Amino acid sequence: xxxxxxxxxxxxxxxxxxxxxxxxxxxxxxxxxxxxxxxxxxxxxxxxxxxxxxxxxxxxxxxxxxxxxxxxxxxxxxxxxxxxxxxxxxxxxxxxxxxxxxxxxxxxxxxxxxxxxxxxxxxxxxxxxxxxxxxxxxxxxxxxxxxxxxxxxxxxxxxxxxxxxxxxxxxxxxxxxxxxxxxxxxxxxxxx
Length: 192
Ligand SMILES: [Zn+2]
What we know:
The structure is a single chain. 34% of the residues are buried. The chain is α/β, with parallel strands linked by helices. Helix 3 (94-105) packs parallel to helix 4. The longest helix has 13 residues, at 15-27. The strands form 2 sheets. A 7-stranded mixed β-sheet has the order 3-4-2-5-6-1-7, with helices on both faces. It has a two-stranded antiparallel ribbon with strand order 8-9. Helix content is 26%, strand content 26%. The radius of gyration is 17 Å and the shape is elongated. The chain has helices at 15-27, 68-75, 94-105, 126-134, 183-190; strands at residues 4-9, 32-38, 47-50, 56-62, 81-86, 111-116, 137-140, 153-157, 177-181. The protein has one domain: 3-Layer(aba) Sandwich (Rossmann fold). It is built from 5 helices and 9 strands, in the order E-H-E-E-E-H-E-H-E-H-E-E-E-H. Zinc ion binds next to helix 5. Belongs to the thymidine kinase family.
């Protein structure tokens, strides 16, 4: 049975590495996969999924207006897709996550979505919220805080290295950096 999988984590837990390894496992058996990543920056026409350990692959782009069912149906011929892998899945809309469940249930293609669970204010991203609710399987990818505890939260640092407490959920083209931390250090960082 095809399933909808959600691999979630904080930042820098190796999501793209796991995604690209999974894609490779299908491809080396001669199977076709569809790779998707979010178009949060419109400077790029073709997408790329890059892992920090140095591997990368081209990917199709989605934004909040992309009709994923039509896209998948178009890509599903002449040779059928064996799997769909989505990076930056936190940026999916609730409706797109529903459509992905349709891809699984009606087209019977497994979907592996990879995303960050919460933003720098500790709130669920729309795509992650829907995926946590609708996926068949939830898989946590782990990374560690500077203190050695499991990092489950993300803080945003401005150019001066000061934690940012307010602002848009997604900062495009800025100099902000993100750091994965445990809940205790998240609370200390965002405390007034
Ligand atoms: Zn910590």
